[in-house]
Amino acid sequence: MGEFEKNLKQALLKCDKLFFEKKYQNAIDEYEKLLEDHPNLQIVLLRLASINQTIGNFKNAINYFIKASNLDIKNIELLNNVAHLYFHINDHSSAKNFYKKSLDLKKDQLVIIDFYIDCLNFLGMHKDIYNFLRDDIDKLPDNRFLNRIFGKSLIALNQHKNGLGYLKKGSGFIVFQDEKIKYINR
């Protein structure tokens, strides 16, 4: 191990110790000193993001996660972390953009699809939900999750009959009465 790596490891251990002692501001100060000399150290950016998230400084956490993700633009976990933080602070438009980037890299993330659809729903983008899911429904016709979401998007687009069909297929717990939906609890 070279001198640089040795010094960096010692500095990181010092910062980590402050973090684990819950001396968050001291840890932030020490990590930021490291960034002054080494602005592209992803591990420092990630730790600063984590500390800021821990203490509720979500905007700072987002900024550090974005800087870290810019160093590794194909890192799905980082993209999802940024998106989740935006979602947490109800910035659904920004969250949507980061979830979309993540899904463009790896389509089969059902939890992320759910969050992405929630963002579109919060933004009233029901046609976008329909367009996003249309091809997946054909590929995965028995996926209850996709059927349920697709059904909700069709209902939001005033395509009630088709929407109810997908909802029924997606849940198995819907009874039709007088053209209204009655949800049955388990």
SSE layout and pairings?
Layout: H1 3-20, H2 24-37, H3 42-54, H4 58-71, H5 76-88, H6 92-105, H7 110-122, H8 126-139, H9 144-156, H10 160-171, E1 174-177, E2 180-183
Antiparallel strand pairs: 1-2
Helix pairs in contact: 1-2, 2-3, 3-4, 4-5, 5-6, 6-7, 8-9, 9-10
What is the CA–CA distance across the termini?
59 Å
Q: Beta-strand percentage?
A: under 5%
Note the run of SSEs as H and E: HHHHHHHHHHEE
- What class would the helix/strand composition place it in? mainly alpha
What quaternary form is this?
A: single chain
Strand order of the largest sheet: 1-2
Question: Overall 3D geometry?
Answer: elongated
Name the poorly predicted regions. none
How would you describe this structure in keywords?
single chain; 186 residues; mainly alpha; two-stranded antiparallel ribbon; 74% helix; elongated
Write a concise synopsis of the structure shown.
This protein is mainly alpha-helical.
Structure description:
With 186 residues, the chain is mainly alpha-helical. It has a domain at 124-186. The protein has ten helices and two strands, in the order ααααααααααββ. The chain has helices spanning 3-20, 24-37, 42-54, 58-71, 76-88, 92-105, 110-122, 126-139, 144-156, 160-171; strands at 174-177, 180-183. It has a two-stranded antiparallel sheet. Strand 1 (174-177) and strand 2 (180-183) form a beta hairpin. The termini are far apart. The model has no long low-confidence stretch (mean pLDDT 87).
